Amino acid sequence: MPLTSPRRRARFHPLTVSAVRPLTADAVEVTLAVPEELADDYGYVSGQYVALRKELDGKEIRRSYSICAPPTRGELKIGIKRDLGGVFSNWANDHLHPGDTIDVMSPTGAFVSRHSMTSLNDPQAIAEESRGLSRYVAFAAGSGITPIISIVRSLLEANPEAYVNLVYANRAAMDVMFVEDLADLKDRFPARLAVHHVLSREQRLSPTHTGRIDADKLRSMFGTMIRPEVVDEWFLCGPYELVQLIRDELAAAGVSEDRIRYELFTTGDPKATPEGNAGRAVVADPTGENVDVTFRLDGLEGRVESPKSADESILNAALRVRGDVPFACAGGVCGTCRAKLVEGEVEMTENYALEPEEIEAGYVLTCQSHPTTDAVRVDFDA
Length: 382
Hints:
Number of strands: 18
Number of helices: 8
Strand order of the largest sheet: 4-3-6-1-2-5
Largest sheet: 6 strands, antiparallel
Low-confidence stretches: 1-6, 116-123, 270-278
Mean pLDDT: 88
Oligomer: single chain
Order of helices and strands: EEEEEHEHEHEHEHEHEEEHEEHEEE
């Protein structure tokens, strides 16, 4: 499926927690049971994510979490790491137990291997397409390992000629998520998987594996354990600053942007905290200084007037008249609110989710898109 093809509509369904496994003192793996009648709705490719929805203290909270296991019919596994001040992540680590029910959106996301983009949600086809010598490198930091471990495992299992270098950065050994799973994976594929743990607050034998990952350390890696010129595809997942640093160094090393796949779990902007509300209070301007916002969703058309003075996003405007408009992070990171701009013009504040070819085809992130014309029309079904 090309990036610009229509996507499966993401919807919430209540799923039951079947298991909660501690990963570290501050992280858990949550297994969600998917009933057979919803199994097709929850098909996915390694690297995709789901959004969880929960009302806490009288407020709806939505958070996105990557799926941490290769496609398995009948279940989803996600990793949730506690964040300082994180309302949802702290609640999940402290209070989520087997037998609980939580609203889960069907999987979405484009942080998947380009080798598999033509077979989205078709693991068998991915295996058939992935044959042949391939070299991959993955960088993960902290909870960024969650989608990476699923991607790495799928690549190794699907292609007996795939080789993977995984660089995983943490503060200390006790913070390493999926440490046993990574060790098991290394035991299964000793000749085709190299795992490099980089600890910023613990001394290791190699200077390359000690301290924070900076430009000098990356250049050292590229000159020794990783040869950028022979890598077919790169996967980067972590905070904005680290992902951008690696992208810059790869560009300096002559790596083409189309070989790099990346996903962020923070934007680098401390003000861009996703609240997951249902549309902030905005009232149309009686003087007539409004933007006419029209949108198509599930074959139905919605319309709302948005005051120019409010500088309201298309997502916020749409949510005021229809509560099931798809979104998750509301911070320009996940891409759940993607729609095609059919009429008018917008200014997109941030974009950490759309590929260049999606933008060229007219797609926007509605959570970040502010109308610059008197009327705009978007299509969530496109």
